Every structure is written in C-alpha cells, then in structure tokens.
Amino acid sequence: MAKEIENLWREVRELSLGTQIDRLDSPPSPLHFLRDYVSQSKPCVISNAISHWPALKLWSDPAYLAGALSNDFVSLHLTPNGCADAVTQVDEDESAGDLCFASAHVERLPFPEALQAVRSSSKGEKVGYLQQQNDCFRTEYSKVASDCDGDIAWATEALGCSPEAVNLWIGTDLSVTSFHKDHYENLYAVVSGEKHFLLLPPTDVHRLYVQRYPAANYSYLRDTEAFKLELEQPVRHVPWCSVDPYPSPEREASERLKYPFFFNGPKPFHSTVKAGEILYLPSMWFHHVSQTPGDGGYTVAVNYWYDMQFDIKYAYFNFLQSVPYESSSLNPFLSWREDEDSESGDSEV
Length: 349
Known about the structure:
Blueprint: H1 2-17, E1 22-24, H2 30-38, E2 44-46, H3 55-58, H4 62-68, E3 73-79, E4 86-89, E5 99-103, E6 105-110, H5 111-119, E7 127-129, H6 136-139, H7 153-159, E8 165-171, E9 177-180, E10 184-192, E11 194-200, E12 211-221, E13 226-231, E14 237-240, H8 249-258, H9 260-264, E15 269-274, E16 278-281, E17 286-292, E18 299-307, H10 312-322
Parallel strand pairs: 1-2, 5-12
Antiparallel strand pairs: 2-16, 3-6, 3-7, 4-5, 8-18, 9-17, 10-16, 10-18, 11-15, 11-17, 12-13, 12-14
C-alpha cells in the first residue's frame, strides 16, 4: 500500500495540479471558476478582483482604523510566540517531550488598544493577533464592512450560496498559522502586506502526521506579564498536523528524521498573495500561513468561507485517511480517523 500512496502523491500533480499555483490576471467567470478550479479542487490566485475596495487605500493607515472602530470592542488573541492553535511543548523543558494543542489567550479590548498590542508584539514576550473568526468581520468590525464587498460575487454565483462567514485578520510577521485544513471553500483577500501560503492537497494527508493532542489554553497574567499554559480538564483531544515546515536550525535534523514523508516527498505548493489579490483555497487543502507586514506595520486580510459540498470527494478523503501507511519501520504512520466533534475551528484560514 505504501507504493500506491506515494504514487498518488505524484500522479495528482502530474495529471491535475502541475507544479505551480495558477495565477489569473482578472476575475474568472462563475462557469470558469466552477469548472476549472472548484470542481477540480485546484487553488488559484486572482488579481484585479478587489481593486475597487476602499479598504486597499484606507486600512494601511492605523489612524483610520482606530478612528473608525474607536468605540468597538474586539477579540485579541495573545500567545508568547505567535503560534496559536498549534502543537506546542507542555513544559518549557523540551527534553520532556510532552506535546499539546495550544490555543491563545483571548481578551476583549477596545480596538485602538488591541491594534496597538498587535503592532507592538515581541516574540518571547507577547504576540497579539486579531483572528477571532466566527464571522467576526460582520460582527466585531461591522463599522468598516462597507470598505469591502459583502461577498465575492463570481464565487457566490459559482458556488450557489452566500458566505457562511466573513473573517478579518490583522497581525505581524510574528504570527504564524500551523498546517491544518478547513471544511470550507475559502476566498482569501489580502488588503495590506503579504500572506505566504504552503499548500498540500488532501491526497497528501499521510505526510502531515496527524495525531491527537490534548487541548491546552494559554492564560496571560497582566500583573506579572507572563503566560501560563494549562491542559484542559477534563482532557479533550484535538487531531492536528504534527509537521513544522520551518524548524529551527537546531531542530531541523531531528524533525527530518521524525517526518520523512513530509520532508522527502513532493514539495508543497508555495504562493505569496499580495495586497489586492485573492487566493482561492479549496476545501480540505492543508495550509500553513505566514505573513509580511505592509505600510502600517501589520498585515490585513479578509476571508470568505463558503460551505463545501460533502460529496464523493469527501467520501474519498475519509477513506484515504483511514488507510494505514507505513513506508519505514522507524517512522510508522498510525492510522487515524478524525473526530469531527473535537476538531478545532479556530485556525487560519
């Protein structure tokens, strides 16, 4: 079975995906988008689709956003390292080897204060990220909603529905989103700065070493300006990708030994999405996200989540992920079946 699965990784690229993400110079027609991208589960980057948005000119100015949202409370996510919703050491002593799925500390703050916390982030001390999701753009940020479109019109027509949720993201280069997948068709529009995506198709699920980790939460103690990471009680497990594609130099050799399917397999697709561009990210594609700030000292993006079709492709994926895969006795992949009820939804994008 190992040979067949490894052949699948190659064949999906040779027959369908190619080696690079397609780039379109203008928005596709609904039929073109549905036929060539949605139905084929194939990402693309679209230029000149949001050039009419006032947000492109206005949101790079922190004074504009702080003024427009001066009386609004928003949800600020805080971590010591910029890695929320990620596999993390339970203890600072890495030799202990205990890992958990760590979620950020969340505070409700006036937007000007929250934005300042994002812009003044410092790794190892406190990193702020505005990433509430759960349709936050239409709830917490409704006063600036008119600066963008309420949907992506050609995608709405192609998909036959309006967005289930619209989310706003504001962060710095210190905030990174670990590999994960979402059960949504995702139209991800960058307003300021750049977003850097590493992408793997659903066929490559075995390469990400998904395991179940005990859930934990950061709490931030303002009197001591310190974080505390505590496991949830009762214990709850979250299935999550184990691979860090950019390990530190001191960890790189050991990470390559632990996760050879990722590091020795086909390269992930890489796409940089610049201000004014939209990434179409098909449902169930695994993605890792980092960012480069724009003129205001932060990156801003708005993403539109459309409900996916739970059709034969979903059934094929469930079958594939249930197949045990072991190409090396030193690095076995243990089969797993995702528990939908326990999967976290608080990750980008």
